[in-house]
Amino acid sequence: MNRHLRRERSAPSSLLSRSWVCTASLAFLASCARTGGSMSKPPDADKTLFLGKVLTMDDDMTVAEAVLVDERGHILEVGTEQAVRDGLGAGAQVVQLAAGQVLMPGFIDPHLHLLPTLLQSVLESHNLAPCLPGPYRIPTATACESRADVLSTLASIQLSPEAPKDEFVLGMNLDPSRQVFDPLKCGITAKEAASAKSFMDNPKFYIERCVSKDRPVLILDQSGHLAYVNQKAIDVVCAGQAACPPASVEQGGGEWAPSNKATSFTGLLKETSGYAPFMAAMQKSLPLAQLQSHPQEVLEAYQKEIKPGIQAMRDAGLTTIADGGLVGRPQLNAVKFLAEQEHFPMRVTGVVTYDSAKTDDIQPTGPACDPRQDARCRLPKWLGAGGLKLWVDGSTQGCTAKLSAPYSYSTKGHCADAGDGRADFDNMQAIVTALSEQWMTKSWRVQLHANGNDANQWAIDAFALLQQKAQNQHPVLFIHNTVGLEQLSKNLGDLRKGTYRATNGQTAPAVQAHVTHLIGHVAYWGHAFRGMLGEEAANNLDPVGFDRDQGIPFSFHSDSMVTPPRPLWFVEQAVTRRTWAYPSLQESGTLGLEKHAATVEEALRAITIEPARQHELDAWVGSIEQGKVADFVVLGDNPLDYGPTKKDPTLIHKIPVVETYLNGKPTSKNP
Questions:
Q1: What CATH number does the domain containing 172 carry?
Q2: Please, which residues have CB within 8 angstroms of residue 163's CB and are 6 or more apart in sequence?
Q3: With CB atoms 3.0 to 4.6 Å apart as the test, which of 71, 338, 593, 645 could cross-link to 577 if both were Cys?
Q4: Could you give the angle at the alpha carbon of 472 between the alpha carbons of 471 and 474, nearest 5°?
Q5: pTM for the whole structure
Q6: How far apart are CA 177 and CA 22, in angstroms?
Q7: Do 652 and 572 touch, CB atoms closer than 8 A?
Q8: Cα angle at 610 between 607 and 615, to 5 degrees?
Q9: Rg of the Cα trace of the chain?
Q10: 3-state SS, residue 422
Q11: How far is CA 496 from the centre of its chain?
């Protein structure tokens, strides 16, 4: 980073007359004489002037030439170079962009999971994620080609011979929706494979053959909505339990998939509550697993290992991230602890699960100080936690998205038995009941995870009823909104306008509804969704065109660990709508390009000002405007120069990130 940026002292915007220079020099010498000869601070030495092409991302998409920032990181002026330089003292520091570079607001990822993302850096060979397509390939120590199929991937887990027999084996990011299933691996015979059926039918059998039968094994799916275990792990969890699975599994909307045998399980676990008992049991034998109960201690113990993950986000141009599902006060405090470290290079806002907010009596918070109210305030990196998170359904690629006509899972392939998927609640009214108490306070931003079209309709209907109870003026966020349908988006648009008729027959007051799409669904899973959901549903993934038609503001996110947090990749993927076939990783055309392709301008807004508005951060970040804070990214090329009739948009991911700034200070100076 920091390539070709020049720092210098400010110079006047035009040539000065000799008489003016002489007069100024005499005045300066007289000043020195009055202070006993000591040198006074040059005028405006506490200010920084950024010069070059500035994409402000304001409502008018203004392109400026200069930005002036004070020592607290407050933006004082934005405009032409001449106008901003006018009256500026010679002591100001100048950051001059090189030819071709642009200054933008720092990128924002509005939905990821920070702690699991950093955990990937620690697991190394136990990170089982499949390859990314060529344009987005991230070098790893392990050849990702060896992870093309499920069983070879499981067999790649390296077990320490010195480890105790009761110590859990933890793997993460297995993805059977993209990693093909070849049953004749790990010494499995054709007869055994025929009896065991597919991996999703009987993961327990395949884990025992490919990883271990003697040690408890827990494998987390990349979606975060599924997990897989062997019998030893089930025995550990069920030991001493009056009933198994524990009641908490069903209460949280989870499931242990039953086998044909009574009181036996296949090893497939659904939803977080389904695998939470295994995470709890694992903490007794594997310190790393204490990420759930003692996350701050884990972060402190693995500082060296997690640092590359943090730097990778900075190197992608991120200056603000939203952690979209913190479970209770321990995780909330851990992320706050991380953000407040001196050299942490990003701001963080937290979103807390609705049930843990009740259990731990968590109230919404903001940053410790506000530059709008206090001129001395340097905006903190920890922005507080003002959002609530609730899951309506599961994962589209995990076969647990809640679908309805005209969509359903195919009866062949990866999700053959999934039907219409599943929801985490019995019905829409149960969502209303779950959120009512917190909604009535009118103090929370509420964010609902909904992938399937039916899950999104439930969310619309729930918000319509809640808004009749109490009019909440905070933004509500539909996270993912993956499987698109034109009527669904119309309903969502009507909810925004205050014209939607709720299920009780009443018209709901307007809800400030926004959408954020996991645009990587198109690139990484689009081809697979053709087979799982059908061509129409695949073409309507992340339906930007429907959003546009209905005036629904949208952003793009990574949902990391699900996809890498790389905002320029989001831009390219939204503009090109390209998809790849697994395991060959051959490009497999485009999905819904004519209807749902974003313009580059729309996509840039979806990683800057729109996510800032969704999290009510737009008073400080998201655009470069007077009164906001100087969180910037410098790019080596202008993304607006790319598009169907301009530079090749499939090369947007190659635009270099030169530097990021927080409060006007370069983050590359942090060790």
A1: 3.10.310.70
A2: 215
A3: 593
A4: 150
A5: 0.91
A6: 75
A7: yes
A8: 105
A9: 27
A10: coil
A11: 24
**SS3 labels along 457-500:** HHHHHHHHHHHHHCCCCCCEEEEECCECCHHHHHHHHHHHHCCC
Tokens of 419: 């039907």
Hey, what are 190's tokens? 């054709």
For residue 126, name the pLDDT band (cuts at 50, 70, 90).
Answer: confident
Distance, CA of 136 to CA of 382 (rounded, Å): 30
Distance CA 255, CA 248 (A): 10
Instruction: Answer whether residue 31 is part of any domain.
Output: no
Strand partners, 632: 105, 661
| Beta-carbon contacts of residue 299 (< 8 Å; ≥ 6 apart) | 115, 118, 306, 334, 337, 338
Domain residues for 271? Answer: 115-293
Instruction: Measure the CA–CA gap between 206 and 268, rounded to whole angstroms.
Output: 11
User: Mind listing the pLDDT tens digit for each residue in 386-444?
Assistant: 999 999 999 999 999 999 999 999 999 899 999 999 999 999 999 999 999 999 999 99
Backbone angles phi, psi at 248, to 5 degrees: -65, -25
The residues near 463 (Cβ < 8 Å, ≥ 6 apart) are 446, 448, 476, 495, 508, 511, 513
- Strand 48-55, strand 657-662: pairing: unpaired
Q: Does a structural domain hold residue 406?
A: no
Q: Which amino acid is at 83?
A: A
The set of residues, in sequence order, having a beta carbon less than 8 Å from that of 494 and lying 6+ positions away, is 500
Q: Which two tokens stand for residue 423?
A: 């929801």
Q: Give the pLDDT confidence score for residue 39 in this predicted structure.
A: 56
Distance, in Å, from the CA atom of 386 to the CA atom of 282, rounded to the nearest integer, reads 31
pLDDT tens digits along 319-342: 999 999 999 999 999 999 999 999
The dihedral over CA atoms of 440, 444, 449, 452, expressed in degrees to the nearest 10, equals 50
Q: Which residue carries 């991937």 as its tokens? A: 153
Q: In this structure, is residue 366 part of a structural domain?
A: no
When divided into structural domains, the chain yields a total of 1
Three-state SS for 343-391 is CCCCEEEEEEEHHHHHHCCCCCCCCCCCCCCCCCCCCCCEEEEEEEEEE
